[in-house]
Automatic annotation (TrEMBL):
Gene3D superfamilies: 3.40.1190.20
Pfam families, alphabetized: PfkB (PF00294)
Key words of the record: Kinase, Transferase
PANTHER family named in the record: BIFUNCTIONAL PROTEIN HLDE
Region feature Disordered, mapped onto this chain: 300-327
Protein name, per record: PfkB family carbohydrate kinase
GO cellular component: cytosol
Domain of life per record: Bacteria
Domain Carbohydrate kinase PfkB: 174-294
Annotated InterPro entries: PfkB_dom, Ribokinase-like
Gene Ontology molecular functions: heptose 7-phosphate kinase activity; heptose-1-phosphate adenylyltransferase activity
Lineage: Bacteria, Bacillati, Actinomycetota, Actinomycetes, Propionibacteriales
Biased composition (Basic and acidic residues): 302-315
Length: 327
């Protein structure tokens, strides 16, 4: 009998910051653009974004993640707390913050700060209980060490025998636990993990290698390839228009998170792997078409003269190009 319970997301969390403005001149002491800051947007990243996207499906979501004791972690908890219940583990170090700078809709620079690792040891009772009550589990691995903790891995392996468990892997992360219901690497990750360039063969090889019930290799606008244990691999194409419009490449940040979150929600509702992957392909495409991670961002004051903070459905992108002058 299928267990009822929340959708539990497990994984590394970080804070994403987007800074945007105008760039009409070059710095006088180096040939680099000067960006006049106009907007600042913040959102949970990593497993935090996956949890937010899962919550949009209307199910109860609990996030098990390691949090530091610093202002960035407090901001993360604030952004998540409106939609997701957080079951915190201890992070030793500073919260990882990824700050992207852009102008006229063009990315220019990313600054990464923070670092550390999750505290090892016995899995806290709260996290143990949350996983035991889960109706489905999504492991959103971002390569920061959480999925390598022995106590957590033992618990996840036990849970995988009871409820659907989806694993979204990372090149720097631990291997999925055996018995996962569905593993969701993208094509580049599949090659990193040792699979070949042929997506159909790669999905089948990874399914056997990871001892998973199914593996879906995502392929962007081409949909995904699904392999199930003991069966051949099949293509799951995107039905409908492609996500790209015009000549500008669409923002796909978080598309893999949306795919994994949608698949997990479908499995929680009773779908099989094939139906879950087909739903996830369509919902990931719709997510990109709607603006991708910008739809999960919150606008905050970039300068004192700008308007006060307010939630937005998506980040405003400034069109056009810039013609630099030195000043």
């Amino acid at each position: 009998m299928r267990r009822t319970g929340p959708l539990v997301v497990v994984g590394d969390c970080l804070l994403d910051v987007d800074l945007s403005g105008s760039a009409t001149r070059l710095c006088p002491d180096a040939p680099v653009p000067v960006v006049d800051l106009e907007e600042r947007w913040e959102r949970p990243g990593g497993a935090g974004l996956a949890a937010l996207l899962a919550a949009r499906s209307g199910v109860e979501v609990v996030l098990v993640t390691a949090l530091a004791e610093d202002p960035a972690a407090a901001r993360l908890a604030e952004l998540l707390g409106r939609h997701v219940t957080v079951e915190p583990l201890r992070w030793v170090g500073d919260t990882v913050v990824k700050t992207r700078v852009g102008a006229a809709g063009v990315p220019m620079l990313r600054l990464d700060s923070g670092g550390g690792c999750p505290a090892d040891g016995v899995l806290p009772r709260g996290a143990h209980a949350v996983l035991g009550a889960a109706g489905a589990v999504l492991v959103a691995d971002y390569g920061r060490g959480l999925t390598a903790l022995p106590a957590l891995r033992r618990r996840l392996r036990a849970v995988a025998a009871e409820v659907p468990l989806v694993w979204d892997p990372h090149p720097r992360g631990a291997a999925p636990v055996p018995g996962a219901t569905l593993v969701t690497p993208n094509a580049a990750e599949a090659r990193h993990f040792g699979a070949g360039d042929d997506a159909l063969e790669a999905a089948g090889w990874l399914c056997r290698h990871w001892e998973a019930d199914a593996v879906a290799v995502t392929q962007g606008e081409r949909g995904a390839v699904l392999a199930r244990s003991g069966a051949g691999a099949v293509a799951v194409p995107l039905v409908g228009p492609a996500t790209g419009t015009g000549h500008r490449r669409p923002d796909t940040c978080g598309a893999g998170d949306q795919f994994a979150a949608s698949a997990t929600a479908a499995l929680l509702a009773g779908a099989d792997a094939d139906a879950a992957v087909r739903a996830a392909v369509m919902e990931a495409a719709a997510y990109v078409a709607a603006g991708a991670a910008a739809t999960a961002s919150v606008r905050v004051p970039a300068r004192p003269d700008l308007e006060s903070a307010r939630p937005e459905s998506g980040a405003r992108r400034v069109g056009g190009s810039w013609s630099p002058e030195v000043s």
